[in-house]
């Protein structure tokens, strides 16, 4: 369960991540695009001073999430709470809070990923190129919709010409 902080409640929930980590920055960019302005994201290099009771070393070990009531979560729990507050995949938090084996496995996987962030970022940069940001598919989507429109136009024109005969 999140532990209460002795700080004022934030204006909106806050997710604190390692701003020096390429993997973390890429994950936050993807997350920011998914949840919009509902959650504030701040690198530990800026936010750690706001929460001295957590400590910079703890912030470096895992992502931390401060909810609207000022409670702090870390690791997989922080990820699931932030997702639920961002109205994304709420069922993961439900599983985490109600099934101890799921929570144990989630924390184990989180720790494994956190311990190997740099090699994972290198593999992803080779796979995706230098930019770890997620692809947007704007051009492909626009092209697909235009071509679909042309197919419909041809279908309607051929149907209309068949009826006129």
Walk me through the structure.
- It is a single chain.
- This protein is α+β, with helices and mostly antiparallel strands.
- It has eight helices and five strands, in the order E-E-H-E-H-H-E-E-H-H-H-H-H.
- It has helices at residues 22-35, 44-47, 56-61, 75-85, 90-98, 100-115, 117-128, 138-164, and strands spanning 3-4, 14-17, 40-43, 64-66, 71-74.
- It has a five-stranded mixed sheet with strand order 1-5-4-2-3.
- A hairpin with a 4-residue loop joins strand 4 (64-66) and strand 5 (71-74).
- Helix 4 (75-85) packs across helix 5 (90-98) and helix 5 (90-98) packs across helix 6 (100-115).
- The longest helix is centred in the C-terminal third of the chain and has 27 residues, at 138-164.
- The protein is elongated, with a radius of gyration of 22 Å.
- The model has no long low-confidence stretch (mean pLDDT 82).
CATH topology of the largest domain: Glutaredoxin
Radius of gyration: 22 Å
Low-confidence runs: none
Domain count: 2
Name the helicity range.
55-70%
Q: What count of helical segments does DSSP give? A: 8
Number of strands: 5
| Basic shape | elongated
Query: How large a portion of the residues is in β-strands, by DSSP E?
Result: 5-15%
For the record, the CATH architecture of the largest domain stands as: 3-Layer(aba) Sandwich
CATH domain class of the largest domain: Alpha Beta
Structural class based on helices, strands and sheet pairing? alpha+beta
Mean pLDDT across every amino acid position:
82
Question: What is the chain-wise order of helices and strands?
Answer: EEHEHHEEHHHHH
Largest sheet: 5 strands, mixed
């Amino acid at each position: 369960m999140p532990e209460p902080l002795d700080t004022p409640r934030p204006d909106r929930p806050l997710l604190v991540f390692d701003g020096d980590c390429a993997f973390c920055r890429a994950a936050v960019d993807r997350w920011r695009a998914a949840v919009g302005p509902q959650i504030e994201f701040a690198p530990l290099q800026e936010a750690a001073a706001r929460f001295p009771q957590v400590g910079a070393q703890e912030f470096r070990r895992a992502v931390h999430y401060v909810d609207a009531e000022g409670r702090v979560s870390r690791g997989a729990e922080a990820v699931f709470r932030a997702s639920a507050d961002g109205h994304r995949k709420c069922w993961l938090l439900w599983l985490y809070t109600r099934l101890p084996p799921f929570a144990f496995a989630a924390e184990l996987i989180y720790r494994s990923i956190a311990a190997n962030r740099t090699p994972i970022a290198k593999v992803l940069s080779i796979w995706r190129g230098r930019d770890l940001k997620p692809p947007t598919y704007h051009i492909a989507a626009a092209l697909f919709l235009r071509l679909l429109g042309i197919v419909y136009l041809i279908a309607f024109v051929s149907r209309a010409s068949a009826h006129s005969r």
